[in-house]
Amino acid sequence: MEKYFNTAGLCNPDKHYMVNIDDRLNQMEALIDKGAYFTINRARQFGKTTTLRLLKKKLAGQYLVFSISFEGIGKNAYASETAFCQSFCRLLYRTDIGKSPEEIPPSVVQELKDICHANIDLIDLSDFISSLCRQTKHPVVLMIDEADQAGGQEVFLSFLGMLRDKYLNSDEQPAFRSVILAGIYDIKNLKLKIRPDAEHQYNSPWNISADFTVDMSFSVPDIAGMLREYEKDHCYQINIPELSQMLYDYTSGYPFLVSRLCKLMDEIIPRKDEFAEPASAWNKEGLLAAVSELLGESNTLFDDMIKKLNDFPELKKMLEAILFNGEKFPYNPYNYALDIGSMFGFIRNNCGTVSIANRIFETQLYNLFLSEEIMNSRIYRAAVLDENQFIQNGDLNMERILEKFTETFSDIYADADQSFIEENGRRFFLLYLKPIINGTGNYYIEARTRDMRRTDVIVDYCGKQYVCELKIWHGEEYNRRGEKQLIGYLNDYHLSTGYMLSFNFNKKKKTGIKKLVIEGKTLIEAVV
Question: Given pLDDT bands bounded at 50, 70 and 90, which one contains residue 197?
Fold first, then answer.
């Protein structure tokens, strides 16, 4: 069977193209060897279930591993302590199928089978766990996938409290060698009312959890290794260093996004007219086409992003301020909205400042926020009327875009005050740009330059890139510095022409476009 890129469910290295995660598994095994209890909380579609499956396989012969999942066990399982204990035991019993008597004595298997339907409570379950761990040949490891599915259930928190008690007293009563909880939410932060006193003291039932610092994102070498395997199987000549770096640049190593882009290049992009054969999709142009395809599709990851932004309007408001105004916010893990955004992988802590997690998410957020304004946007409608004049021989005429934008902007917003334009200028330009490149190209913001004074917009269109600096006018000296910085970015992107758009509030300003040649680079500068 031919291997393929999988983005739907569990990945199997015998069937699917995958990065090598042996180093990550070794780090997790080291935690288990130390007897650590820990939580793998990572964003959706980050490879948690696949990792647990491969970890279980790696531990075979050293540990007796019970790997279960709380996904889909039903709300009746949390109706009472007995119902939960019975459901938990049935999950354990299902994993017993195929185990040899040398690993787990038949008497223990029978005991587990009997209590699956018995009237038991957490004390009974604790006693059984001790009996199990006492009689098995190998130390016992418990893995619970989708553990946060039960996070809001009081009986589950009591269950964690029982495991915590056994861990703390493992020198007196046999306990699991290691317990691994996997999910999106950090179980460590769930609260349990341990002691019903007058002050209602709350403690975490999982404060025994060891720090889990294993990096589960894909690095550039990880991606390169996967591409080498694909190249070998298909006999393509792929510029692996360039492509693996580009994949990382767009995704920051988010596993689903990397695999999804590869899957699109393998299966979807070669069907397009501009790609004559499958091998022609595995280059810069093919990747940019895959990015456009990805941003145009509906998937559970993007759907969940929209849901979370609707659930947490303060997070949405902050992200809009970052993207459109260049504002900077300190990262505070005790801010609940920030914590949610981080757990779901939308944002990250960048040296103490909130940052969008990756270029794909950033562009998707721009598209989302702009789509909410399109129906009432005069400048968007103007761009729709003008759009046919901006594409010439398949290339984007960015100079003409700037020229028409300055005219349209002046017509519509000539009387707007300075604060309004400072806050919305970038938004207006992206609204104008969107219908022109929509469906064929995309844009993203160069994160290194996004602040309240300037932003570089990188436009990808039919395999070509255009760099356009947007800035507030702060005098000739500031403008000259901006020109030098833009020339630096043109060198980085191996481009000969760059573009500048300045929002100038000087009453004596001269609007329009001029062309300069500086250090061998052509700069097209527009002032509004």
Answer: very low
Tokens of 486: 């833009």
What pTM, to 2 d.p., does this model score?
0.89
Full DSSP string of 54-80? HHHHHHBTTBEEEEEE-TT--GGGGSS
Pair of tokens at residue 356? 């969008």
> Minimum mean pLDDT among 77-91, 141-155, 194-208, 415-429: which range?
194-208
Phi first, then psi: what are they for 68, rounded to 5°? -125, 170
Written as one letter, the residue type at 255 is P
Determine the Cα–Cα distance for residues 129 and 66; give it in Å rounded to an integer: 12
Going from the C-alpha of 202 to that of each of 198, 209, 210, 222, 337, the distances in angstroms are: 11, 17, 20, 42, 22
Distance CA 474, CA 453 (A): 9
Query: What are the residues whose beta carbons fall under 8 Å from the beta carbon of 522, sequence distance 6 or more?
Result: 496, 497, 498, 515, 516
Question: Distance (Å, rounded) from C-alpha 335 to C-alpha 339?
Answer: 6
* Mean pLDDT on 344-362: 92
- Average pLDDT, rounded, for the chain: 89
Which stretches of 192-325 are DSSP H helices?
A: 220-234, 240-251, 255-263, 284-295, 300-311, 313-325
Per the CB < 8 A criterion, the answer to whether 261 and 294 are in contact is yes
Q: Which of 119, 171, 116, 112 is nearest to 136 (CA)?
A: 112
Residue whose C-alpha is closest to residue 6's, from 231, 260, 244, 229: 260
CB distance 522 to 488 below 8 Å: no
For residue range 79-89, list pLDDT tens digits in order: 999 999 999 99
Distance of CA 302 to the CA centre of its chain: 10
Beta bridge partners of 356: 347
**Interval 107-152: pLDDT, tens:** 899 999 999 999 999 999 999 999 999 999 899 999 999 998 887 7
Residue type, 431: L
Contact 424, 324 (CB under 8 A): yes
Give the DSSP H/E element, type plus range, for residue 94.
helix 81-95
The 3-state DSSP class for residue 393 equals coil
